[in-house]
Amino acid sequence: MNIFYFIIQQTMFFAIPLLIVALGGMFAERSGVINIALEGIMVMGAFISIFFINVFQDSLSGQGLLILAVTIAAVSGGVFALLHAFASINLKADQTISGTALNMFAPAFAVFAARMVQGVQQVQFVDTFHINKVPILGDIPVIGPMFFQNCYITTYLGIIIFIISAIVISRTKFGLRLRACGEHPQAADSVGINVYKIRYAGVIISGALAGIGGLVFVIPTSTNFNGSVAGYGFLALAVLIFGQWRTKGIIRAAFFFGIMKTLASTYSGIPVLKDLPIPNEVYKMIPYVATLVVLACVSKNSQAPKAEGIPYDKGSR
Q: What is the DSSP letter of 150?
């Protein structure tokens, strides 16, 4: 039973950042802007927030510092995403090229800035955020050991973000306008909706969530940041496609890939897998092989939300 609890806890560590980042990608794509810069935005959000923790960990600690770092990650991710929004919306640049440029820039900037400031590229931090057991909830049989022991508040933050995203995208006026601007911008424009502003909002939300996702990925899995998020931004794109750009599909896909990543990373702690005569490299390949197989199976039936060009010149509204 302890092994089962261990697998569930590790799955949450890997699935939650995928969930958050994929939800961010959903907001951008449902508005009509393809955001493949999620990897770069994750790197930027993780770098700035981890550096913030590094600077203030002597004067602050615990959950308060983590909450401040999450805020920093969201702001930095949103600001960095503005570059993609400006290029894609105002300049009408190729969205794939713009996103690729940000993906290339972010890790180089993180490594360069870290070396300039502290001499080495790894930004160290002390993990004071781990929660051994949540009071009262951690004592609940079965559920307590799975979700309220050996955990981080980032897990609950991810669930809250999912609930809010599901409500916003499907049950609010803003969500309706966001979807209209992505699917039928001409119709949205004809009723007075400023397509530019809505798309900017979608990309900024996407950047904020991707920035948070970068921090949420690093905190439970390491005690330093070296300018990489291990391809999680691209894996989040696979989650987004597998989830059909819908919140319910995205959370299912995130936990599927989270399980695959758990098997790849913690197989040595699972007796059944450890005893199998399988090379380490095979386990490490599992998430990416699963990505290729899943995308190949769903690609024929998948259709992304339309990302049509904005049907009017800037300033017409």
A: E
